[in-house]
Design goal:
Blueprint (H helix, E strand, L loop, with lengths): L4 E3 L2 E3 L5 E6 L10 E5 L7 E6 L5 E3 L7 E6 L4 E6 L8 E9 L2 E4 L3 E5 L2
Parallel strand pairs: 2-11
Antiparallel strand pairs: 1-3, 3-8, 4-5, 4-9, 5-6, 7-8, 9-10, 9-11
Length: 115
């Protein structure tokens, strides 16, 4: 059973940083595009960042310059470095991969930005 395992969420003050991890055991992630979503209002997940198989990345304007997606192919793990966090970044964050015919989600990790 293919799965994605997330970690790294928590409570942080405005202006602080967090790093989320998304482990993909058994998947050669270098061959796939992977994504980060936030839960968003009305429980509608919103895509805000991608990392492509060639290592290129893409971000929504809201997070560009503050968030960075990277991956460690040897560890089959994708990361989301979140800097200069704002209260409006508070949300549940999900990683995602379309692996062969399966649309696979992480379990979600809560990020709360509050003083």
């Amino acid at each position: 059973q293919v799965q994605l395992v997330e970690s790294g969420g928590g409570l942080v003050q405005p202006g602080g940083s967090l790093r989320l991890s998304c482990a993909a055991p058994g998947i050669n992630i270098s061959l796939y595009t992977m994504h980060w979503y936030s839960q968003g209002p009305e429980n509608q997940r919103e895509l805000f960042a991608n990392i492509f198989s060639d290592g290129a990345t893409n971000y929504l304007d809201d997070v560009k310059g503050r968030f960075t997606v990277s991956r460690d192919n040897a560890k089959n793990t994708m990361y989301l470095q979140m800097n200069d966090l704002k209260p409006e970044d508070t949300d549940v964050y999900y990683c995602n991969i379309v692996y062969r015919t399966q649309n696979v989600w992480g379990q979600g990790t809560q990020v709360t930005v509050s003083s």
